[in-house]
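Quick review question:
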């Protein structure tokens, strides 16, 4: 550190100690402005994290490649073989299942949420059949058969997993435990339900009889946990594919031709219980996709209907987040300007009182540059101290808000105070100190030496 800079800081610190009340007044006027900047920056980071968390749970983490697979009798078998022992690759297959009394209309036709907030009074309709072709285009037709009476049964959107989907979609456990993917498969399928389904099991007595479309026999499942999957608008359940496949018919030994005009798909699964099938891949796992394409093509599947999409949610919503930050940052800047005006006012008054002191310093050889540095050092130190106080208040407020909102917004509870907000507070405090002290510093540097003669 140069001698002049060190002298400026030392004399500036002495000036702050000598005028504690004025320094405190300057800090009070600046505190709210810096706190507003810190709050806006922290709020922007929290909003971005919350939006990303919702997208990650419903779609997947940024950079994840989602590969949609064609409908074919051999798709499940080929996918399991291709993913065996692979890291960073998970296969999911959706189907429908009903848990509870047989031959009744479920409480939530269409696997609607059983939470009244999302599913109304267990609304939905099961009076339609859905058929989908290999490209994923689906059509619905009204059913003509008589609707059975309502009973103690819940319709579930069942997701069969080959691998742990949470590495791509970070579901949050609410109670119980997640699927144990390393243990031997059980003949009693272990399932994890989401909040939309858990509400129904909480409020109704449901027999433990699981019926899956295309299954050979009904099974007795074990509900081992409740998970927040960000999809409370539907009743979802998650199960190991090998445990559910114990109750499904074995795939045909001879590959069937591609189903380009058939009715397999979501809502109508033929004799296999098959629904939409996807594979989640981490970046750099292109070899898995190429293997799947080659083996499915050899089996006769319509690989032209396969398509891959890379999730890039952060880039898509960056413009929205930046616009929101700019609007609130503009409002915070107005508050900060009030603090700058306070520093400027106090600084001009202080220079007016110290005219003789500055003139005397000039008379004994102090340069104009050093005088400017002395005044700026005082205002910059004031701005820095104010920034530290505002950051401390912001961190305390963040912890209080996190504890109060943790039940409704788990994302906040998992976050720590954003370091970007602290950096923004320091920059705001120093900029305010510079702007507020520049005019008083220039005025102090222009004080003539002759002024000391009037002292």
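Suggested answer, residue by residue:
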């Amino acid at each position: 550190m140069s001698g002049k800079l060190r002298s400026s800081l030392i004399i500036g610190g002495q000036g702050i100690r000598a005028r504690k009340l004025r320094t405190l007044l300057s800090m009070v006027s600046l505190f709210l402005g810096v706190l507003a900047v810190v709050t806006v920056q922290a709020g922007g980071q929290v909003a971005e994290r919350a939006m990303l968390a919702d997208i990650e749970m419903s779609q997947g983490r940024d950079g994840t490649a989602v590969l949609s697979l064609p409908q074919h009798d051999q798709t499940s078998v080929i996918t399991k073989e291709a993913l065996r022992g692979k890291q960073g690759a998970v296969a999911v297959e959706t189907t429908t299942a009903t848990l509870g009394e047989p031959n009744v209309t479920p409480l939530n036709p269409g696997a609607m949420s059983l939470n009244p907030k999302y599913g109304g009074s267990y609304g939905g309709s099961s009076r339609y059949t859905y058929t989908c072709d290999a490209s994923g285009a689906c059509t619905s037709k009204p059913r003509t058969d008589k609707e059975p009476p309502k009973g103690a049964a819940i319709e579930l959107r069942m997701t069969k997993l080959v691998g742990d989907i949470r590495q791509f979609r970070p579901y949050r456990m609410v109670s119980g435990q997640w699927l144990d993917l390393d243990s031997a498969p059980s003949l009693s399928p272990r399932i994890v339900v989401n909040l939309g389904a858990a509400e129904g099991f909480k409020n109704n007595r449901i027999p433990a009889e699981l019926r899956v479309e295309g299954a050979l026999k009904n099974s007795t499942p074990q509900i081992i946990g409740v998970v927040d999957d960000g999809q409370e608008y539907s009743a979802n359940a998650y199960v190991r594919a090998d445990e559910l496949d114990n109750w499904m018919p074995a795939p045909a030994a001879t590959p069937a031709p591609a189903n380009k005009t058939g009715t397999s798909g979501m809502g109508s699964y033929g004799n296999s219980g098959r629904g939409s099938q996807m594979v989640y891949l981490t970046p750099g796992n292109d070899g898995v996709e190429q293997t799947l394409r080659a083996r499915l093509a050899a089996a006769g599947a319509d690989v032209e209907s396969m398509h891959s999409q890379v999730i890039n949610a952060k880039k898509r919503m960056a413009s929205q987040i930046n616009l929101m930050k700019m609007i609130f940052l503009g409002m915070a800047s107005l508050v900060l300007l009030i603090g700058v005006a306070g520093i400027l006012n106090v600084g001009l008054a202080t220079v007016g009182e110290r005219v003789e002191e500055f003139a005397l310093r000039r008379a004994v050889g102090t340069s104009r540059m050093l005088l400017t540095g002395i005044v700026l050092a005082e205002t910059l130190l004031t701005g820095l101290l104010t920034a530290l106080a505002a950051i401390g208040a912001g961190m305390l407020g963040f912890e209080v808000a996190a504890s109060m909102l943790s039940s409704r917004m788990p994302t906040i509870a998992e976050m720590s105070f954003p370091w970007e907000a602290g950096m923004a507070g320091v920059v705001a405090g120093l900029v305010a100190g510079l702007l507020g002290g520049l005019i008083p510093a220039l005025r102090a540097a222009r004080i003539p030496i002759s002024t000391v003669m009037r002292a």
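Why it works: Confidence is low (pLDDT under 50) at residues 120-125, 254-273. The two ends are 34 Å apart (CA to CA).
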